[in-house]
Amino acid sequence: MKGVEFALLAIGAVAGAYLRYRIVESPVTSGNLPINVLIVNALGSFILGLFSVITTTFNLDQKYTLLVAVGFCGSFTTMSSFELETVNLIDNHAIGLAALEILANVGLSFIAVIAGRLLGYAILETMLR
Strand pairing partners for 33? Predict the structure, then answer.
């Protein structure tokens, strides 16, 4: 990995980690369901879906993938925190909430990727008119 590539990866990772920290530590609540990590994972999935359309359509240089997909989205989204929150809910005998946590994170993140891609295609269609 060359210096410029490493720098782009690092810049994306720092930005993603910082934004994740700010969102996870914010006082957003939804009853007993840990929603902050859900927000991070869904938003990161949306960004990655949108970015995938942009990169394939415009055949962007790999450096942009290092910056956005690997660096930013890689450090922004957080599977390990989602898993820990789910296990903590199970440990506290909140099996229903744990199931909801799993469905919400996986389902919403999946929908967010699709929404990001749809937005990307809509933007491209508008640009090409």
Answer: 30
Of 121, 115, 123, nearest in space to 53 by CA: 121
C-alpha to C-alpha distances, 7 to 14, 17, 36, 47, 94, nearest whole angstrom: 10, 15, 29, 21, 43
For residues 123 and 100, what is the distance between their CA atoms, to the nearest angstrom? 33
- SS3 breakdown of the chain: % helix, strand, coil, rounded to 5? 80, 0, 15
Domain boundaries, the chain: 3-127
What's this model's pTM, rounded to 2 decimal places? 0.85
CA angle at residue 70 from 69 to 76, to 5 degrees? 80
Rg over alpha carbons for the chain, rounded to the nearest Å, is: 17
CA–CA dist 50, 103 (Å, integer): 22
* Per-residue pLDDT tens over the stretch 23-82: 999 887 777 777 898 999 999 999 999 999 999 999 999 999 999 999 999 999 988 888
Cross-strand partners of 30? 33
Please give the structure tokens belonging to residue 12. Answer: 């994306």
* 5 touches 70 (CB < 8 A): no
CA dist 47 and 78 (Å) reads: 14
